[in-house]
Design a protein that fits this description.
The protein has 70 residues and is an alpha/beta fold. The chain has three helices and three strands; from the N terminus they run E-H-E-H-H-E.
Length: 70
């Protein structure tokens, strides 16, 4: 069985874009959970402050949350 790591790098710039970032993150998480795929979210503090419930939900779903510092 081949193993692959899926890695999302969530930068502070994420919170300043004009798109609906929360909806985008939720779609990513929903798709990962639907496909039973685990991922790593490398995230900076500003993004966690903006979307704390998303990252709690991701961690509770078995995804890894790693620090990208602040």
């Amino acid at each position: 069985m081949k193993k692959t790591t899926i890695f999302f790098d969530a930068e502070a710039d994420l919170v300043s874009q004009s798109t609906d970032n929360k909806k985008c993150l939720e779609r990513i998480l929903s798709t990962l959970n639907e496909k039973k795929v685990k991922a790593v979210f490398n995230v900076c503090g500003k993004v966690v402050e903006q979307y704390p419930e998303f990252f709690k939900k991701a961690a509770n779903s078995g995804h890894e949350i790693s620090s990208h510092f602040y």
